[in-house]
Design goal:
mainly alpha
C-alpha cells in the first residue's frame, strides 16, 4: 500500500469534521461552526407561516415540512423517492427566504443530509442539470451575507458538492471559490478557520483543484496561518494535512522545498508538538518531500538537517507509537538524513542555511578558509545565494540575520575579484549602505565593516591593475 493510501486509511475520518451526528466522525471541539450547528438543529421553523404568507409554494411546503418532522428511516425513504424534489425545495427556499435563522436551518439540514451519505450530492447535481440551474451560484450568493455562520456553512457545503460527486467546479467558479478560501484563511478577523481549512482539505484532494490552489500561491497562505501564535493543535493538523496532500505532486513538492518557510515551520511544530496526529502528518509530509522530487532529494535532506531535525528524529525514533506507520516513516527519514550528513560539505551546510532563511553565527561565516575556497560558488545558479542574502537584508527584521547577511556580502566581495560589480548589479550594495543607519548597533557595525571591505577591495583591485600596466 502506498504512503498516500495507508495514511489515508488512518485519518480518513478526520476529513468530515463538521458533523456531530456521524458516529464515526471526528469532532473538532474548538470548531465554531460545529458548535453553532448544534444550536441550529435544536431550533424549529414554522413552515406553516411561510406558506400562509405565500412566501413559499405548496409543493415546497409539503416537501420541507414532511422531511423535517420525520425520523431518520422515514427521511431516507423520502430522499430515495423524492430526492430531487427535496433538492429543488432547499435551493428554492435558500433563494426566496431572507430570515437568517431560517437560512441557517436549511443549510444545516442540507449539510446533515450530505454527511449521512456522500453520494447524495448527486441529487443536487442531477436536479441542477435537468432544470438548467446553476448550483454553484445558489451557494456562492450566500457568501455575501452578513451572518458569518451562513457564509461558512455555505462554503463547507460548496466544497462537499465540488468534491464528493462526479461534477467539478468550472474554472471561473473554481478560481473564485479558492481565492475566497485563501482570503479567509489569511484574514485576521476570520473566526471560522477550522471550517475554511476543512474546505481546503477536501478541495486539494482533487487534482485540478490542487493545481489551481498551488498556482495562486496557496502554500504561502497556509504557511502564513501556521505561523500565527496559538492557533491550536487541531488547526495545525488541518493545515499541515493540506500541505501533505499538496506534496504528493512532485512539482509542487519541489516548490515546497524551495519555499524558505515550509520546512522551518514544520520543523518548529514538530519540536514543540506532543500530539501524535500532528507528528504523524508532519513526518508523512517530510517523507513526501524527500521522496517526490528525486533530483532534489539531497537538497531536501540538507534543508531538514539544517533545521536541526536529526536530533529530533533520534528522540522520536526511540518512542513507542500506536501507529506503526509513524515508526516506519521516522526510520526512513532518519536513515536518509544520516546518509547525507556523512558527506555533507561546509558549502552544502552554508547553502542550506541561507535557503532556510534562518542565519546563525555558525563557524563557516567567520572561516577565512571557507570564503577563500567557496566565495566564487555564490555565483552558481544565477547568483541564487547572493539573491537570498539580498532578500534577507531587505525583508528580515532579525538583527542577527541582518548582521550575518551584511558580513557575508563583505566576505564575498573580499574574496571574489569581480564581487563588487556583481553585488552592485544585484542591488546588494545599496541595501548594505542603508543598514549603516539601522537602529540596532550590531547591524550598523557589520554594515560598516562590509562597506569598508567593498571600498578596500576596490582600491586593491585598482592597485593591481596599475601594477600590471
Amino acid at each position: 500500500m502506498s504512503g498516500y493510501q495507508r495514511l489515508d486509511a488512518v485519518i480518513a475520518t478526520d476529513i468530515n469534521m463538521e458533523n456531530e451526528n456521524q458516529p464515526t466522525g471526528v469532532v473538532i471541539a474548538s470548531s465554531k461552526l460545529t458548535a453553532e450547528a448544534c444550536e441550529v438543529r435544536n431550533q424549529t421553523v414554522n413552515w406553516q407561516s411561510y406558506v400562509q404568507g405565500q412566501m413559499i409554494s405548496q409543493d415546497d411546503y409539503h416537501a420541507i415540512a414532511d422531511y423535517d418532522c420525520m425520523g431518520e428511516e422515514e427521511k431516507n425513504i423520502i430522499i430515495q423517492n423524492k430526492g430531487e424534489q427535496l433538492a429543488k425545495t432547499c435551493l428554492s427556499l435558500l433563494s426566496r427566504l431572507t430570515r437568517d435563522q431560517t437560512i441557517r436551518y436549511i443549510l444545516v439540514l442540507v449539510d446533515d443530509l450530505l454527511n449521512e451519505d456522500k453520494g447524495r450530492v448527486a441529487i443536487f447535481h442531477d436536479f441542477a442539470k435537468k432544470n438548467n440551474v446553476n448550483l454553484w451560484s445558489s451557494f456562492f450568493g450566500l457568501l455575501n451575507r452578513q451572518d458569518q455562520f451562513i457564509i461558512n456553512q455555505a462554503a463547507v457545503i460548496t466544497a462537499k458538492l465540488a468534491c464528493w460527486g462526479k461534477a467539478r467546479l468550472p474554472d471561473n467558479e473554481l478560481n473564485f471559490f479558492l481565492k475566497w478560501l485563501k482570503d479567509q484563511l489569511t484574514s485576521p478577523e476570520c473566526e471560522y478557520l477550522h471550517s475554511i481549512a476543512q474546505c481546503l482539505q477536501l478541495m486539494v484532494r482533487i487534482e485540478s483543484y490542487k493545481q489551481a490552489f498551488f498556482k495562486m500561491e496557496g502554500i504561502t497562505s497556509v504557511v502564513a496561518t501556521l505561523l500565527r501564535i496559538n492557533i491550536g493543535f487541531q488547526l495545525q493538523y488541518q493545515l499541515i494535512f493540506i500541505l501533505w496532500l499538496l506534496s504528493f505532486d512532485p512539482r509542487i513538492a519541489e516548490r515546497m522545498v524551495g519555499n524558505n518557510a515550509v520546512i522551518p515551520v514544520l520543523a518548529d511544530i514538530l519540536r514543540e508538538s506532543e500530539k501524535e496526529k500532528v507528528i504523524r502528518i508532519i513526518i508523512a509530509t517530510m517523507r513526501n518531500l524527500i521522496e517526490k522530487p528525486e533530483e532534489k532529494k539531497r537538497e531536501t535532506s540538507v534543508a531538514l538537517i539544517q533545521n536541526k531535525l536529526l536530533a529530533v528524529l533520534s528522540i522520536l525514533n526511540g518512542k513507542p507509537w500506536a501507529d506503526e506507520d509513524i515508526q516506519e516513516d521516522i526510520e526512513y527519514i532518519y536513515e536518509k538524513l544520516n546518509e547525507i550528513v556523512q558527506d555533507l560539505s561546509n558549502f552544502d551546510e552554508y547553502a542550506a542555511e541561507l535557503r532556510s532563511g534562518r542565519l546563525e553565527w555558525s563557524p563557516v561565516h567567520k572561516s577565512e578558509k571557507f570564503w577563500r575556497e567557496n566565495a566564487h560558488r555564490l555565483n552558481e545558479k544565477n547568483y541564487e545565494l547572493l539573491k537570498i542574502l539580498n532578500y534577507l537584508m531587505e525583508s528580515s527584521t532579525d538583527p542577527t540575520t541582518l548582521c550575518i547577511a551584511a558580513h557575508d556580502i563583505g566576505e564575498y566581495v573580499r574574496h571574489f575579484p569581480r564581487g563588487k560589480t556583481v553585488i552592485e548589479s544585484l542591488g546588494c550594495k545599496v541595501k548594505v549602505m542603508k543598514m549603516m543607519t539601522h537602529d540596532d548597533p550590531s547591524v550598523r557595525k557589520e554594515a560598516l565593516l562590509a562597506v569598508q571591505k567593498i571600498m578596500v577591495h576596490n582600491w586593491e583591485y585598482l592597485g593591481k591593475q596599475l601594477k600590471d600596466v
